[in-house]
Write the structure tokens for this entry.
Amino acid sequence: MTRLIIEQFKTKYRLPLTVESTHFINSLVMKEYLAEFHGPHAT
């Protein structure tokens, strides 16, 4: 999933991405996924 998002940023929006920004995007995607997985009452 993250790879698809990164590719969209690069190709569709033509945004140059650094390693740091790629890692940041990955952390946001993972945080969102884990929030969905654990539900709204997770600690």
Helices lie at 2-11, 19-38. The chain has one domain: 2-38. Residues 2-38 form one domain.
